[in-house]
Amino acid sequence: MSMANLRLFSGRTNRPLAEKISEYLGIELGNVRIEPFPDGELMIKLEEDVRGKDVFIVQSTCSPVNRSVMELLIFIDCARRASAERITAVIPYFGYARQDRKDEGRTPITAKLVANLIATAGADRVLTMDLHAAQIQGFFDIPVDNLLAEPVLSHHFMNENIENLVLVSPDVGNVKRSRIYSGRMNGELAIIDKRRVSGHEVEVGHIIGDVKGRTVLMIDDMISTAGTICEAAKLCKANGAERILVGTTHAVLCGPAIQRLRDAPIDEVIVTDTIPVSDEKLQDLVKGKVLSVSRLMGEAIHRIHNDESVSSLFHMDIDR
After folding, report:
1. Which residues are catalytic?
2. Of 6-20, 32-46, 138-152, 169-183, where does mean pLDDT reach its minimum?
3. pLDDT digit string (tens) for 274-295?
4. Contact indicator for 150, 179 with CB cutoff of 8 Å
5. CA angle 171, 61, 77 (to 5 degrees)
6. Predicted pLDDT of residue 198
7. What is the DSSP annotation of 279-290?
8. Alpha helices, DSSP H, located in the chain
């Protein structure tokens, strides 16, 4: 399939990442007009022909989440009614992923609702990264490629030549992800027992494993209010950790997150650009740095477009 048949568009939530992806692919971003009506309703118009084309729409459903989701749905519907041959929703950060089950009565499973909306709008497949829960792929009735940011984050930390490393999972649910990193980086594994008190507050118990005199690396899929990661860092420090490094895919960074990260005993915070992070927020972080996942996502788009395997990207050597 010729690259001439590929069209890449960007919504408004993460155009910088879309531009980097387009640069990797060697194509221009498609022209689109996105503007609100006076009453707040959104109007999207594609300014170029997509009939019979393979269309990819880049849109992280991050803050403002509801507007971002609605914009993506209208974008997909617009491409479908313009007779695109195939539509792939490229969602670097999939919002509402934490609402993936009924953990108490009379609550929604919003991740499933959003999956239904995306498919109903007309998407033929979804490309995303580090879903909060891998089983969300099963909520979709269309193909889903869930990439891992692990090659990007691991490459950064491996280049730091960290000695005496221990990978600490900030909670039990994150053990599988931490084990992947420990396998790549040849580090030992420790686990923190955590209990969530509310959506804003967590309570940490004890560490399963030894961190005394070690360099701790904690990896999580997202930092939202930073309660989990900061409480875990304090516990590691109290148990004798020498340095504490943090890596995360999705820098949600809402509410008290920045202040908590600044006050916590964390030496370095590394995030990716699945969600745009302002320079002001970065300057507030201790040795904060943003890594781009554009090459990983660009390569996935190239392979999807050419009907090639995407699974090898889970272990991609970022130096290649």
Report:
1. 194
2. 169-183
3. 999 976 777 777 678 999 999 9
4. no
5. 140
6. 56
7. HHHHHHSTT-EE
8. 15-25, 65-81, 110-121, 150-158, 175-185, 227-238, 257-263, 279-284, 294-305
Q: Do 116 and 139 fall into the same domain?
A: yes
State in Å, rounded, how far the first CA of the chain is from the last one. 24
Residues 230 and 100 in one domain: no
d(CA 89, CA 118): 8
| CATH classification of the domain holding 163 | 3.40.50.2020
The SS3 assignment for 219 reads strand
Q: Which residues pair with 46 in a beta bridge?
A: 32
**Which residue carries 């920045």 as its tokens?**
258
Backbone phi and psi for residue 143, each to the nearest 5 degrees, phi listed first: -60, 140
- How many residues belong to the chain? 320
Beta bridge partners, 166, equal 188, 216
> How far apart, in whole angstroms, are the C-alpha atoms of residue 116 and residue 97?
13
In a domain, 320, yes or no: no
Q: Please check whether residue 114 lies inside any domain of the structure.
A: yes
Domain extent for 77: 3-148+294-315
Query: What pLDDT score was predicted for residue 252?
Result: 95
Bridge partner list, 294: none
Q: Is the dihedral of CA 222, 228, 231, 232 positive or negative?
A: negative
**Each residue of 298-320: b (16+ CB within 10 Å) or e?**
bbbbbbbbeeeebeebeebebee
pLDDT in tens, 167-210: 999 888 888 899 999 988 999 999 998 665 555 555 667 899 99
Residue at token pair 């701790």? 216
pLDDT at 281: 73
103 and 184 both lie in a single domain: no
